[in-house]
Amino acid sequence: MVCRRFYQLLGDLVLCRSGVNTAAEYAKNITAELNHVLNSPGRNYFSAVQMSYQAPFVDAAQSIDPVNRINTYVSYYPFGSVIGLALDLTLRSRFKNISLDDYMQAVWQKHGKPEIPYTLTDLQNVLATVTRDTQFAQDFFQQYILGKEAADYKTLLAQAGFLLRPVNAGKASLGLTPINFRNNAAVILTSTMVGSPLYQAGLNRDDVIQTIDGKKITSREDLNTALAAHKPGDQVKLTYTSQNNQSQEVTLTLIQDPELEVVLFENAGLKVSKNAQAFRKNWLVSKVK
Predict the structure, then answer these.
(1) 153 Cβ contact partners less than 8 Å away, ≥ 6 residues apart
(2) What is the CATH number of the domain that holds 73?
(3) Do 155 and 12 contact (CB within 8 A), yes or no?
(4) Is 260 helix (H, G, I), strand (E, B) or coil?
(5) CA-to-CA distance for 30 and 8, rounded, in angstroms?
(6) How high is the pLDDT of residue 269?
(7) Which of 35, 93, 107, 113 has the fewest CB atoms lying closer than 10 Å?
(8) CATH no. for residue 223?
(9) d(C-alpha 110, C-alpha 3), whole Å
(10) What pLDDT band is residue 53 in, cutting at 50, 70 and 90?
């Protein structure tokens, strides 16, 4: 399933190479997928392969009970796509005239065209054949497909003059746990995300945030105003009503807003080197005249 998602990445690249999307628009596309994967606690518990095993239960089955998938699951669609992004950029930087296009063509010739079933080992072997580097193929699969490591996307994207950065650097945050505002109440919608300030302080699903530093939180504007008065690392007092209607006070430590974005170097006021320009052109511009 992970390999199939590589085709999704190639589809986005085709739109860019054909001129339908610009490089800046492509940056927005990969921003959403990188945020989904890199900011998900689930990737620390299961590999991309293991996530694909859970897909039938997430995609089709229904549960009337609360689940904790916000912390345990990452959709294999963006998961596979960002792994494909890492493979493409790594191949282009490490091997001469080899890219994800060449790898997927080789997979098609070996298994798709003759309709021969394949395993993960087969896919690893095809990568070894294309790169003529068995150790590289083994390491990539072990680290990113069978393992739980995340590639260094900031460095990989910088080769093409793309900058991966926080959207709101220096902005204090409670984390990415969804909070819904209804009837003048700030209700936590899901299990709190592992590692977030709310999780660390012991809050959970259906708890209602009452105050931060003594200021009532009844709307998104109230929350934003309260957080704007602080910086990451600050400790704040938060009161909330738990599921059993008990009022409690905790002290939590704010973090920097974890949301990420990908932008072009030139749109961030950075110089694009000739090497980066050439890399980007080779990656995102069609070679077909």
Answers:
(1) 34, 38, 82, 85, 86, 164
(2) 1.10.390.10
(3) no
(4) strand
(5) 11
(6) 97
(7) 113
(8) 2.30.42.10
(9) 14
(10) confident
